[in-house]
Structure formats: C-alpha cells, structure tokens
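Last lecture ended with a question: if I hand you only a sequence, what can you say about the shape of the protein? Today we answer it with a concrete record. The protein is asparagine synthase (glutamine-hydrolyzing). Below, first the input exactly as provided, then the predicted structure, then a couple of comments.
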Amino acid sequence: MCGIAGWVSFDGDLRQQRATAQAMTGTMACRGPDDEGLYLREHVALGHRRLAVIDVAHGRQPMALATSGALGAGPDADRVTDDELAIVYSGEVYDFREHRSALGGRFDTDSDTEVVLRAHRAAGDRDPREVVAGFNGMFAYALWDTRREELLLVRDRLGVKPLYYRQTPDGVLFGSEPKAVLAHPDVPRVVDAAGLRQVFGMVADPAHTPFAGLREVPPGHVVRISRSGVQELRYWALESTPHTDDVDATVARVREILDDTARRQLIADVPLCTLLSGGLDSSALTALAARQLAEAGQGPVRSFSVDFAGNDTDFVPDDVRGTPDAPYVRDVAAHVRSDHTDVVLDDAGLLDPAARDAVLRARDTPGMGEIDTSLHLLFGAVRKSSTVALSGESADEVFGGYIDFHDPVATGADTFPWLAGRMIAGYSAGDLLHERVAKELDLTGHVDDAYRQTMAEVPRLAGETGHDARMREVSYAYLTRFLPVLLDRKDRMSMAVGLEVRVPFCDHRLVQYVFNAPWHLKNFDGREKSLLRAATADLLPQSVVERVKSPYPSTQDPRYAAEISRRFGALADDTSSPLADLVDLDAGREAPRNVQDRLLFVDRWLREYDVDVQL
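The predicted structure:
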C-alpha cells in the first residue's frame, strides 16, 4: 500500500517543477511512511510514498522499465532513458505470482509493482484494459508511456483504493487523495451546488467529489490522458448471468472462493492481523485466516476488536443493534485461539480535538463524525503491532446483511433502501439547510436523479421478474452507491496511520458470483447472509452462527452526546461560522447527536480548508 501523486503537462517542462511535485507527493506521507521517490521528465512528474508490504528491501518506486528490460526504481529511475514505462502504484495484486510465472523472463524484485509494469510492457500496443482485467486485487496506479506521451490512471473494480484527478489546460493532476491535487498552487478550493449535494446527500457518487473540477477515477475504469484529451474507459462492471447452482453447490462455491481469497490476501512480508467484531463477517474471516496460517505453520492469527468504555455493563439494545460485540469476540478468539487484543475507547479520546482534526485531514471532506473518529483510533492502536489488517467490510452489501434488505418497506420504496428503511433513515443535516440553499441544492431531486440513474445501470437478467428482480436492483444499489462510502472511510482512516486494510469480501469473483445468486438462495434459511453463514459455519462457535447482524458499534455514554450538544451550541452562537450561511444553526440545537456531530465537522472543514462556497 502506498500514496501516489503526479502531474502531466504537455506544454510545460516539469523538470523545473520539482518543488511543486515534491509538495504534492509530501501530502501522501501518511500513506507511505517508509520511503519516497520522485520521477521527473519533461512532461511528467510522478511521486510516490511507500508503505513497504511486499519485497520490503527492493520494491522501491517510482519504478521505470526500458525497452531493453533494464529496471530502475526511486532515484535510479533517472538513469533509464530509452522508450520507458514508469509507474507509481498503490495497493496489492494478489495473484501477482501467477502473472510473474506467465510472463517469464528476468525479474529484478519480488514485488507486485514490477509484475504490473512488465505486464503492461509485454502487452505492447494492446488495449491496456486487457492487462488490468487480468489482475485480482485492490489497486490504483499511474503508468506513463514515454514513447506515446500517454498517462494511464487505473483503479480496481470495486474502488477499494482511491484515485483522484483534475484536468488542467494542458494535462492533468492526480493523487491518491484530494489533498495531493489541492497542494498544487493553481488548484482552487471551490465547492459549488453540486459539491454541496455531495456533502449533505446520503448517496455515494462513483466519480464526483465536493471540490469543483476534481473527479475520482470510477471503479473498474482506466483513464487515458494524452495530447488528444482525456478518456474514461471501463474495463469491468457487474454482469447478470443465469445462476444454475443449487443451494449446496452455491454454498460450496462461496466457500471455495473464500478459501482462495483468504490464502491470497494473507501474503505479506510484514506483521498481519484481522479486525474482529464478533459478527459473522469478521469472525468467518478470522477463522479462515487462523486455519490457513495454522496449516502453514505460521499461527496464531492476531486479532483486534473495538469497544467503548462502559459497554460491558451499560449496553442498551436498540432497533438496529441488539447485542454488544464483546461476548462474541471472546467466543471467536477462544474458538480459533487467536492472539487477541481489545481496543477500548473512551469519550476523552473520541472528543479529543487533535483526533477529530486528524480525521478531517485524513478525509479532506467532513466525513461521518464519531464513527470516523473511533475507526481512526482503532487503526492507530492496531498499527502499533501490525502493518496489514484483514477486514470484513462489504460482506453485508454482497450477501444481503443489512436489516433494510429484509424490510419490505425499504426494498419496496421508489428510492434507495437505506433512505426508506430503519438503518440510517431519519433526520439529516440536509433538513437544516436555509430555505434558499435547500431550494438551490434540491436534495430530494438530486437523490431521485441518482436513484433513476442507478436503476438504469442495473444489468437485467432476461426473464427475471418479481422479488428476485427487485432484489437484484437493491443489491446493485448497495454495491455501487452505498459501499463506496464505507470503502472510502476505511481507506482514509487506515492509511492516515500507515495501516493497509484488505477487504477479502470485495474479491470481484465473489461479488460477481453472489450478485447473480437469486435472492431466494441468499436467504434460503430465512436469515440474513444465509450463504456466508452456511459456507463458514463449520469454522465458528455456535453463538456467532446464530447471532443476528449488528452494525459497527457506537458509544452509548450520555456524556458524549452532552459534549457534542455543548460544542454545537457554541458553534450556533458563533456569528463568524461559515456554516451559518448554509444551515439554520439555531434549529440545529434540537437536532440529534449524529447530525450535530456531522455539522461540527462540516464547519471545521469549511474553515480549515478555506473552502470557497459558490452558489
């Protein structure tokens, strides 16, 4: 895992712009604390910050490859002069060893970066999408071709790893995070109506950001930049195909993919662990990892959980969270004999201004309040002993785990299910917008447009009707308009502390296969995530097999809510707040804690990022 940044200028000489290129790259230091490198040519600057995970000693970047096959990396890249390909790369290609064998010939490192670079060289003039489509992994990289004077920006299928870009009059700026692009002196920090819809809306946009002119490379896309312009080219999308396996065969296939995915994603040359909540997803993943490490003579698996002070005695169930995590975490840790650590957070940590500022700087946008802060603190604790962590993120979207999947009101609504169901629906920050701003943003119309666009994208299956057809639509919406929010949060909070978090349930083979399993198979036993439960039950304690889905935990200490309310009251009294031009802060005094918490982050973002709001 790493952080990348860069600049293409077809009319300029970037060899004279080292300081700016270095400044852009320097913003990625949190993502890559182990090394840095810069590649400068007349029309391109590539910057890299490295978190060493594979081939720690030799996998330096930027990495460049000449026609002769000579390889240069980091400072040595300047020695390569003829017809070169150069790369800055973030992420992991989990099947890089198979590609390495298929490519044959000389390799100078054991890194997956070199495999990606040589695979593109071997492809010659073929469509680069053919190369990318062969990779299994989470990745975002930039590849410069000197002969063609062409840059490729590549992002993995589900968008696990981020990549942003902004067109300029004569090229492009790019980076792993917005801050890398914003570090360029010519980039304004403008947020217009479209950007505010991103801030106050509840739907992920797979390409746009709050900052005007700044785009994300869409998941499953290659962006080609040349003198003739910019093209976004899709290389992967969910497809609908007939599912002919019965229940037993489907369960067996899910287990087969999970076993293979876990095996691939346990490869690391640095300490590795799992994130364990005691839920089905993370418990299954921890058990799979424990078994495979034991078989390889490398156990025990290290696991980490998060909890909040007082939850052991004062937990109160609610509509979406019926049980505390801790008892189930203990059951799993004992069952698989993991080397387990509980990370217990208190309100002092969650409310610490330094921690909240770190979250804002990690996101570059307002984020999700307490949930972000707790995740950031958890990852900081994990990073003290591990460099790589495996997470159960995305299993709910893939297997249908959320309560709204099983609520006819939510799935039957003519909108996104999470806005109509019980999980997150209700009072939102958008409800507090001043009338003028609300009219300009038209969040209701924005959400409706986004929903219509999403439904228009759904790959239909010929002959599929009724509930199965509707649940295909629901699954597609969650995978493409809800999951990106969680992947973005996970990436920012982990990489802010230099922790690589892998998400095995985002393996595209698993996502594609389960997407095409009809809904009556996905809950064949009347439970949420029936396929995952059946595929991994033999690995788990019975308590976890029977546990009902419970979301990421939250503090229940009333002192947290009281302090957020106090801080919001102080904000409402602050006539200098830039948020006052957008939101009725007096009305916000009566808003729920989560809304106040989020608005505190919006205010801080507007101030700290010197955002120019243009309506």
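Comments.
1. The chain has 26 helices and 20 strands.
2. The radius of gyration is 24 Å.
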